[in-house]
Design goal:
The complex is a heterodimer of chains A (367) and B (558). Chain A is an all-alpha fold and 367 residues long. Chain A is built from 13 helices and no strands. Chain B contains twelve helices and 24 strands. Classes of the chains: A mainly alpha (367), B alpha+beta (558).
Chain lengths: 367, 558
């Protein structure tokens, strides 16, 4: 590290914040996973007509619909009338709540890590792959925190458990970034010294982070719509939880049980759609800002550099998703598959393009 | 004939359907994939050659399929042309429809508002002058930004229809037609644009003038550009400054240049040179053209002193092989001065060629030269010196950076020395012989790689990109909403003065989520200040009619 240009102390604190954030998020994920594994599945009558809800139109997906289909008793303090004494929280729920609190702590620590890096290097803290991935993860976590925020009717426990599936990819990304892509705090190279760096990279990072939440929601939606979920529903309720079946039969059973505990398919679909329609224009702006910067730095606004090409592919794929959403026969599963394809393109763009191929975006502090 | 027309119509219908557009979008994404995975000629020609050399069986086939020129290939072009045809075919009727809807009045209230996804019934008791018509007018006033119409009720009272969100479709249309404009602007820019690269040694030397493609080392131009009417700019580079971190990472690059353009170049003018500090991210913009600082490297200087005492000095750019340390390689070729040798043949056989490595900061491993730092701290070269026919007299173009190996293989060039030299050091060829020739390494100066770009379409590309994003945001943010209010005189058996029944119904035509809260807020806003509001006594579900059922079906998903 180079002490002339960089505040070494702050940079060290930033690294500590990063490590703490990962540790806290891992702990949070374990706690939330415990809750997911321990709670009983929702097996209310609502499940039966749930598959019908997905294609049904008006009003079916409003929050009341999800709320009344809750099998567990959760009391909203805003509800008027007789206050039913709240049943004591189960161990699983308490663990899950602790996990959620830890998620917020982890997000805070990641924010601290990013801010300290910026202060240490006296520039925006997204000048290399390590910093870019951290920022993208933060965007994804914050987006998830907004989309999955508790306190709305019918969202309490169910949405908390979705955190597990957001944390898995985020932690994979953070591990890769911290373990293999770590870069010492330093000033950026001349090509990156532009006021477009704060604009282009942050906007792209925000879009990517929110797309990550959309991708996770679409994958869960597909799981929910898959035969796995159906097999579990058709199982006799009594047998699904009892041990004693053979190991081969139990493994898919466990997955099916987890799938059974997810919020209903329509809620997942709604999360995927709403995050995508937010991230789509944001990412589009990011690409356009990138083009304006490229005109200034590289002499052309678009040159089919590998990174540009895959950004184009991802954007077209998400455009296809939005079109599929308004095309009969494409709405549900096919649209979700397209969204997953877009997610794959984003991940591919992040790793393969920066680490394997050589293009103009290949600086970013690796290789 | 008729069947042909029918087939054409069916084809057109299929092409402009949403399903086809989706498939084409998907194909477009798919077709771009090889552009990211395989080396592309437009980016790096030598990588394509390298790839083909490594894959002798697959390479020619890929080349035949234009896999190395994906974005100008026939199949990529076919996909996007079809996509845009489909887009125009799909959206032109929608423009007409949208124009019609802009003039249309909101539809009449359905018979049974209770069948709508959102509805509300209440009795409002206000001042005695409050009639259904007055209430309807007040509410219509409050619906600013909505299109409203008040119709007389079926029996008595008044009905208010209101609709908003027309901008959504407008934004949608703007988005799609901006895409079309973007494509046209890109195509025109490519057709009339050009870009050229040139290396200029940064010592205040003659520089170059971009008046002809010949002035450039490489030149790429659109099909309409024949090179006769380039926008002339003259540039000379006075110096080049690079700053590095101790790690060798670059901190800043800048070149002080002088340029002439436009009036400066007209004969009879002063020929005034304008200074500019050219930096990465700060191109020089002159009359619609741009000059960029794209790269840099070093040009070593050698002096060869021939046996009769005459000397020749030359400075030639060498190619940076290592982007981090700027270890470079290259060639120098010297033709002996006139009079040194008796005839042209002897002169040709005594040409001197120098080929080797240059390091801006010498780092020796034995005699093996490498570079320790990209700045010019301790310049050194490790070179082979050849004597013989360097190919200068053939008139054929040669590589600037390597000797033609065939000249060495055929014995026309023979190696006479291999030596490491630091700046100022020299070596005497054939020691002991009276006609000794000395080769001196004088040092090095930086060179810069400049690019001149001309793209008349790019402003329009930006304009269309902005309108495209504007349209997109509008079409995603604006929500289409319809509400109806039916107001009837209240009171059983006779009307009570100032008391009316109000029935509201609402429909979200797009973006269902959040509509529940939105409708409640809207209801409160419409009813506030009208008097005391009470629930309607009979709020049971109403009768179903075919019409309202049909309306309920038109609710958009989500």
């Amino acid at each position: 590290m180079n002490a002339e240009e960089v505040d070494v102390g702050l940079a060290t604190y930033s690294d500590w914040a990063f490590t703490s954030s990962v540790v806290v998020l891992v702990a949070a994920m374990l706690l939330l996973a415990f809750e997911l594994a321990s709670t009983r599945a929702r097996r209310s009558p609502a499940r039966v007509h749930e598959r019908g809800l997905v294609s049904a139109g008006p009003g079916a997906g409003t929050s009341e619909g999800a709320g009344t289909s809750e099998g567990t008793v959760t009391v909203d303090s805003a509800t008027p009338g007789v206050v039913v004494p709240t049943p004591p929280r189960s161990v699983g729920e308490r663990v899950g709540r602790a996990g959620l609190a830890l998620v917020y702590v982890g997000i805070g620590l990641l924010l601290v890590c990013i801010v300290l890096r910026g202060l240490a290097t006296a520039r925006v803290p997204w000048g290399n792959m390590y910093e870019f991935i951290n920022l993208t993860c933060l965007s994804g976590l914050v987006a998830a925190a907004i989309v999955l925020r508790p306190g709305r009717v019918g969202r309490t426990g169910q949405y908390r458990q979705l955190w597990v599936f957001v944390l898995v990819p985020v932690l994979i990304l953070l591990t890769v970034s911290g373990r293999w892509l770590y870069t010492n705090a330093a000033p950026v190279m001349p090509a990156l010294q532009s006021y477009w760096l704060p604009i282009h990279v942050s906007v792209v990072s925000l879009g990517s982070g929110v797309f990550l939440v959309a991708g996770v929601a679409s994958i869960l939606f597909l799981l929910k719509m898959s035969p796995l979920s159906a097999a579990y529903t058709s199982d006799a309720p009594g047998t699904s939880g009892t041990p004693g079946t053979t190991a081969t039969a139990q493994t898919p059973g466990a997955l099916a049980r987890v799938v059974g505990r997810l919020p209903d398919a329509q809620a997942l679909d709604r999360i995927a759609y709403r995050t995508t329609i937010f991230a789509f224009p944001v990412f589009g702006f990011g690409v356009i800002f990138g083009a304006i910067w490229a005109e200034e730095a590289w002499g052309r606004y678009w040159g089919w550099d590998p990174k540009e090409t895959v950004a184009f592919i991802a954007w077209v794929t998400y455009a296809a998703y939005l079109h599929a959403r308004s095309t009969a026969g494409w709405r549900d599963k096919r649209a979700a598959w397209i969204n997953v394809a877009g997610f794959v393109a984003m991940v591919f763009n992040l790793f393969f393009i920066n680490l394997v191929t050589v293009g103009l975006h290949s600086y970013a502090g690796v290789g | 004939m008729r069947s042909l027309a029918q087939r054409a119509r069916n084809t057109w219908r299929t092409l402009t359907s949403m399903g086809t557009a989706l498939v084409l979008l998907f194909l477009l994404a798919l077709a771009a994939v090889p552009g990211a995975m395989l080396p592309q000629r437009s980016l790096n020609e030598s990588k394509v050659d390298e790839y083909q050399a490594r894959h002798p069986a697959l390479g020619p086939w890929l080349d035949r399929l234009q896999a190395f020129d994906v974005f100008s290939s026939f199949w990529f072009t076919a996909v996007y042309v079809l996509l845009f045809v489909s887009l125009v075919g799909c959206l032109t009727p929608r423009i007409v429809e949208h124009a019609r809807s802009l003039r249309a009045v909101p539809v009449a209230a359905p018979r049974n508002l209770a069948r709508l996804p959102k509805h509300e019934n209440c009795v409002v008791t206000g001042e005695s002058g409050q009639t259904p018509e007055v209430v309807a007018a007040t509410m219509a006033d409050r619906l600013r930004g909505w299109r409203t119409i008040i119709r007389p009720g079926r029996e008595t009272g008044a009905e208010l229809s209101a609709e908003k969100g027309y901008l959504r479709e407008f934004g949608n249309l703007v988005f799609h037609f901006s895409l079309l404009g973007l494509l046209v602007a890109v195509a025109l820019g490519k057709l009339f644009g050009y870009e050229g690269n040139v290396i200029v040694i940064a010592d205040g030397g003659p520089g170059f003038c971009s008046a002809s493609p010949a002035a450039f080392d490489s030149f790429r131009a659109g099909n309409t550009v024949d090179g006769t009417s380039l926008h002339p700019i003259c540039v000379r580079v006075n110096d080049f400054q690079a700053h590095y971190l101790p790690s060798g990472q670059a901190k800043s690059f800048a070149a002080n240049i002088d340029y002439q353009a436009g009036y400066d170049l007209i004969s009879g003018s002063e020929g005034h040179w304008r200074p500019y500090r050219l930096e990465v991210n700060h191109p020089l913009r002159v009359g619609g053209d741009r000059v960029y600082l794209q790269g840099h490297g070093y040009a070593p200087t050698f002096t060869v002193t021939f046996p009769d005492g005459q000397s020749r000095t030359s400075t030639v750019q060498w190619q940076p092989d290592d982007a981090l340390t700027l270890l470079s390689s290259g060639v120098m070729r010297f033709d002996p001065p006139a009079g040194t040798y008796p005839d042209a043949d002897a002169r040709r056989k005594h040409q001197i060629a120098i080929q080797g490595l240059f390091a801006p900061t010498e780092q020796l491993d034995g005699t093996l030269l490498s570079s320790g730092f990209p700045a010019l701290r301790a310049p050194a070269v490790a070179v082979d010196i050849y004597r013989g026919d360097a190919g200068l007299d053939t008139g054929r173009p040669q590589s600037l950076f390597t000797l033609d190996q065939r000249l060495i293989d055929q014995g026309r060039l023979t190696k006479v020395e291999r030596v490491n030299l630091r700046a100022g050091e020299q070596v005497r060829l054939d020691p002991g012989s009276p006609d000794g020739t000395t080769v001196k390494f004088d040092g090095a100066v930086p060179f810069v790689n400049l690019q001149v770009s001309h793209d008349p379409g790019q402003v329009w590309v930006l304009v269309f990109a902005v309108t495209m994003m504007g349209g997109l945001v509008v079409s995603l943010v604006v929500r289409r909403r319809r509400i109806w209010v039916r107001i009837t005189p209240a009171g059983e058996p006779g009307p009570l003065p100032g008391t009316v029944n109000v029935e509201l119904g609402g429909l979200a035509r797009t973006d269902n989520s959040g509509w529940g809260d939105e409708f409640e807020r809207l209801t409160q806003r419409l009813l506030s200040g009208l008097g005391t509001v009470a629930q309607w006594p009979n709020t049971g579900p109403g009768k179903s009619t075919e019409k309202t059922a049909a309306i309920a079906k038109t609710v958009g998903t989500i």
